[in-house]
Amino acid sequence: MTDFIRPHYYAPEKFQPSTEVTACDLFIYGATSGGITAAVEGVTQGLRVVLADVGARLGGLTASGLGQTDFGNKGAIGGLAAEFYRRVGKHYGQPEAWTWEPHVAQQVFAEWVREHGIVFHPYQALAAVEKDGNRIVSARMENGHVFKARVFIDATYEGDLLARAGVTYTVGREPMSQYGELYAGVQFGHPNHNFRLFVDPYVKRGDRHSGLLPEITDADPGRQGDGDRCIQAYNFRFCLTQEPSIRQPFPKPAGYDPQRYELLGRHMDEAVFEVFRLSSPMPNGKTDTNNFGAFATDYIGGNYRWPEAGYAERERILQAHLDYSAGLFWFLANDPRVPRPYREFSARFGLCVDEFTETGGWPHQLYIREARRMVSAVVLTEHHCVRRDQVSDSVGLGSYGMDSHNCRRLVWHGRALNEGNVEIHGFPPYGISYRAIVPREAECANLLVPWCVSASHIAYGSIRMEPVFMVLGQSAAVAAKMALEEGVPVQQVPYADLRSRLLAKGQVLELDWQIK
Prior knowledge:
By secondary structure, the protein is an alpha+beta fold.
């Protein structure tokens, strides 16, 4: 049997106590794909750049199983983001590539860091931020290391730096009434990723007094459009294979409980089997396996505390997601509760022996689909996505549909029901405002936030794609350089000059209405 080796989000045993003080021009927290493009651009601009992360891996989700990213319109991707896809293509002997193996993306990011001499400090858990008035002076880590800089970029998935700097943010779903958005808040009725037929949620079928099966809640369903603190589900993007030469069977996690998956079993009893349906083909016989269906790799409801949790609690949440996913795969491939045809099909899949070798094939990065979202002078909403409202200070484009995975799994008139799925497509690329990636000046004058941008829940569901964050990371670094040149807060960078510099670097700031 394959050993079960766990990835970790937070590994304090790796932290080295430090009294070091590191000074630089630009400090970037978060070695995500957008954090790396920001670092590359900062060095190219001649800045002294330091990149730090709570972990040690580069590239975030792009290098952790997301081998087929959602991009909407390829024409909306320019600058260093487009260069990333060209570099991936070069590996495969193509002009560009839009599917890749995780280790290839990791290699591209590592090459960028090495080529540009980027100083990277791994295992740096942010403890506190020191400010002088409305400016960040330094960021102090749990191990004692202090990073001083003139400008800061928060490139984390969670907005940890912006939160510790006292910048206003929100978590959860706004009600329809807040911004007049049709797809805001609680959303019932979308047919995808839901139980197609009646599936009984009770331990003893038909007996509500017997209690609910695991992975379902009896919370008040609320009304369409209500706001709440729920966020769309997280999962891992799994790199799987059916190739015998590189396939290893799914290992059985400790504490495996088949009852967790009884709801899925009842769904399969109705001849519905969808878990592996969204297994997009990758090079060399591998897949990018994402969530599909009513009960699959999304751990619905398991992530609510993640955005504002401390690092130790996030580690526990990550392990809970891993246990859920590993148990799911073991259940499908081995448990006699699963109908034989589905069980035999599932057993054809396995983890790849040549991916994530240090963790036995499990990806290291949890898919943080949303966490904190900054609230600044401009809040991007559904109206911007469909271009009812348009911005005058674009620093990049969004082009994917408004997309939210389910947020809750409920009991609804005696049946199981998922709630929160939204999939609205068919609108053209739209501009992302510079004012949406900087806080209000009174709150912080030297911070840029290309990841947890100022947006509503439903608008963020469109913006939240990795190519967009790579674009915004580069734009943020260009703006940081200008703020230092001019000696002004980042909010006062002259947009006309910023625009010309971004265009000169190949950024795409506007695009015609043709859907490609």
